[in-house]
Every structure is written in structure tokens, then in C-alpha cells.
Amino acid sequence: xxxxxxxxxxxxxxxxxxxxxxxxxxxxxxxxxxxxxxxxxxxxxxxxxxxxxxxxxxxxxxxxxxxxxxxxxxxxxxxxxxxxxxxxxxxxxxxxxxxxxxxxxxxxxxxxxxxxxxxxxxxxxxxxxxxxxxxxxxxxxxxxxxxxxxxxxxxxxxxxxxxxxxxxxxxxxxxxxxxxxxxxxxxxxxxxxxxxxxxxxxxxxxxxxxxxxxxxxxxxxxxxxxxxxxxxxxxxxxxxxxxxxxxxxxxxxxxxxxxxxxxxxxxxxxxxxxxxxxxxxxxxxxxxxxxxxxxxxxxxxxxxxxxxxxxxxxxxxxxxxxxxxxxxxxxxxxxxxxxxxxxx
Length: 344
Fold this sequence. Notes:
Number of strands: 0
Helix content: over 70%
Strand content: under 5%
Radius of gyration: 21 Å
Shape: globular
Distance between the termini: 38 Å
Structural class: mainly alpha
């Protein structure tokens, strides 16, 4: 009963502060492509420096020797993980009272990957533009779901990482710090008594009224999804999805002849993902790579030997995700769905 009241209140706030469909439709190819190109340039520059600091010839040789069957396995695991997270997005939409087909939900979710190279992946909220246009889903509703998605991603990665924690005793302290930050963020989302008075006060100022009401609406929409049942379903899907990428790093390390067990590769991926996410750097770039290199060094793998594995897992997860998102976003922009209320 309480969640329905909160959902209605969030919808009321959204209706009062939502942008018009015309404004949402102004989102263009050029804006997406420009963002992708800027982020890609930064990433290429960073990876270029890393390669030069090592031996780029040996890196190229190592990647060229990587077994094609192992690459196919990695791509399958990564894609399957994306589908699981897309289904989770669809589940959240349905629990938020939005009647959106599964295929469209997954397509919109994948389209959001185009702007995954933004701080905290907040650019993925662009999928709300498509849902607003085609199914009249309020953008603040999608932003609220995005907040919960990010939290569940982190909870899933935390759960996975904890399975290997005892193998890296020297890193337990840092891992627990990350865990505390994630849990605190989840608790904050549920504590309306803290953020509502602050945002309501800010809404009293003319210049701050619009963003304050929008943030409050998004937080209330996210809180609506933090019930025990929805949380557990989201946690299971998140854990399985991120396990696919964790296993992918293990396949890559084995394919490159690096000595690592599945549990070691699992912690390496999970911890570095947490570091990248909590750093709020665009796409976690820099922090994620540094975390992987640091943990591989801890396992006795040299920088020169470990770098090809880091580059390959990031190509197959981050960079392939951006490319996939670009394809799906262009597709959704090129073929808008005509809603019944828009038909003539």
C-alpha cells in the first residue's frame, strides 16, 4: 500500500516537472556520436600511453595469438550478461506500472550503452528519451530505475567479490570500504525522511525548483523498487549478469597463458569494477584498469603480461558495449513507434 502511495506521488511530481515530448525528441545522432567520440579519444590516449610504457609489440603479438574459440566464448558470456540486465530493466519497468514489451525494453536498455562512458553511467538515462517518446514513460521514472540498476550492479559485484575475498587478504580493507559506500547509498535511497525535506526546501527557490523536484521524483521512483521481493529478484539477475563478465576475464587470462584460478579472476574483475564505479570516472576508465593491473601484480603477473588481458576484457565489455549502444540508439531514433494517442 505504501509503495503505491509513493509511486502515485512520484508520478504527480513527474507530471508537474516532466519535459515535453518535443524536448525529449531533440536528442540527436550528433549528440550521441560526439559524446562517444570524445570518450573514445580519451580512452585511446590512455591505452596508448599504457601500451607505450610497456612493449606494444608484445601486446599486439599476445592479442594476435588469443584463441578465436576463447574470444567467441567471451563474447557470448558478455552478451548473455547484457540480456540478463536488459530483462532486469524490463522487470523494473513492469513493477513501476509501465506496460512496455520485453523486446523494446531490452533494446532501449542496450541503446543506453552508447553513453555508458559518462560519470556513474548517468548518460544511460538517454533510454528514457525513447521510452518517453514511444510509450509515454516519464523520464524521471526511468532515472529512478537507473539509480536502482546502478545500486544492484554494485550489490551483485560485491556479492561475487566476497566469494574470493579470503584469497586477497591484503585487499580486504579496501573491499570493505567499497562495501560500506555501496550499502550506505542503498540505505540513503530508502530514507525519504532525509532527502525529502532538503529537496523540498531547495524547491522553494525559483532557480532550483525544477531540478530539485525532478531529483525527488526520481528518488521516490527508485525507492518504490526497494521492496524485499524486487530487491532479491534484482540481486539474483545482477549477480548472474556480472558473473558472466567475471568468468570472461578468467577465459581471457587462460587464453593468454596467465596463471590464475577462477576465484582469483573473479575478485580481480569485481574489485576493479567497484573501484571504477565508485571513482565516478567516465566508464570507470582509469580506475578499473589500474585495479586489474594492481591485483594481477599481486598475483605475480607482470605489468607487460597482464596488460593484454586488461585491454581485451575492456574491449569486450566497455568498448563493445558503447558500439552496441550506438547501433541500438540509431535504430530506435530511426524507427520511432507510433503511440495510439499520437495516431491521426
